[in-house]
Design a protein that fits this description.
The complex is a heterodimer. Chain A has helices spanning 2-22, 26-50, 56-80. By secondary structure, chain A is mainly alpha-helical. In chain A, α1 (2-22) packs antiparallel against α2 (26-50) and α2 (26-50) runs antiparallel to α3. Chain B is mainly alpha-helical. Chain B has a domain at 1-79. Chain B has helices at 2-21, 26-46, 50-74, 87-104, 116-119, 122-133, 138-146, 148-178. The chains are: A mainly alpha, B mainly alpha. At the A-B interface, α1, α2 and α3 of A face α1, α2 and α3 of B.
Chain lengths: 94, 179
């Protein structure tokens, strides 16, 4: 059961990797990175159960948070061209 | 099964590294390095180095992506392409890589019970640390007692770095308030 899940996750990792390498636009790649982060979380969760150590779930939770913040930072950079920009003011007033 | 996943993840890393090295857009490189960090964090988890995996995910995929993007905001997004191929550079890289691979030939195999790391002092820590130190957690007793001076040095370095960061950031903040 967990082996089948592992194979499925590895297959989707290949697909996300293809999109990240081939993807013509910025958004394809950002989505691929975000997707890959999610796959990492699932992978760690499944490997925890596969090797009989479900404690790895804590690690997976941390990765969810890191992935979320990283994606936010990348999207802010794409939108404003600057990480320190204030969305309340006009674009790139710094 | 874990052998197959190990091999698959390492192949992903090689493909990704080649793809990253061929990219010209530095913004894409910064984003793709996030995937690379996630992959290496998974490999560290498979190797049972959970603390290293934590650090790799937090620093590699989190902070360093943000720092690289901040640098890109101040500089340019495109890499300057070298016009001519440098044969000497290729030779130097191949020689260094060969030397590194030669260096791994002496190392014990993955999971070898007779590796020096398993035969040196680990047994003594497991058997005696409870009565010698009196702390139930073996990792804590190794870090805080057996390697106490080492840990003291590490915390001194981190403390100094923290003071430096606070001094640098604090000065910028105070200037911002005045102006």
């Amino acid at each position: 059961m967990f082996v089948a899940a592992m194979i499925g996750i590895l297959a989707t990792m290949v697909l996300a990797l293809c999109r990240a390498i081939l993807g013509p636009t910025v958004y394809d790649r950002i989505l691929a990175v975000n997707m890959f982060g999610t796959k990492t979380v699932l992978f760690i969760a499944v490997i925890g159960f596969l090797t009989g150590r479900p404690d790895f779930l804590d690690l997976a939770l941390i990765y969810v948070l890191i992935n979320f913040i990283g994606t936010l930072a990348v999207l802010k950079f794409v939108t404003y061209g600057d990480l320190g920009a204030d969305p309340e003011n006009e674009k790139g007033t710094r | 099964m874990t052998e197959i996943t190990d091999v698959a993840l390492l192949i992903f890393m090689v493909i990704l590294a080649v793809a990253i090295s061929r990219m010209q857009n530095l913004f894409m490189v910064a984003v793709m390095m996030g995937i690379f960090s996630f992959l290496s964090a998974v490999v560290f988890t498979l190797l049972d180095a959970v603390d290293v995996a934590f650090t790799e995910a937090a620093v590699g995929a989190g902070v360093s992506t943000v720092l690289l993007l901040g640098t890109l905001a101040l500089t340019t997004r495109e890499e300057k392409v070298a016009k001519q191929k440098n044969a000497f550079a290729l030779l130097a890289v191949i020689a260094t890589g060969g030397a590194l691979i030669y260096g791994t030939l002496d190392m014990p195999h993955y999971g070898d019970a007779n590796a020096p790391v398993h035969t040196h002092v680990a047994d003594r820590y497991i058997e005696k640390s409870g009565e010698e130190i009196g702390v139930p957690n073996i990792v804590t007793s190794v870090l805080a007692s057996y390697r106490g001076y080492d840990t003291l040095g590490e915390t001194t370095v981190i403390f100094t770095a923290g003071i430096g960061v606070i001094l640098l950031l604090g000065r910028a903040l105070r200037k911002g308030e005045k102006s």
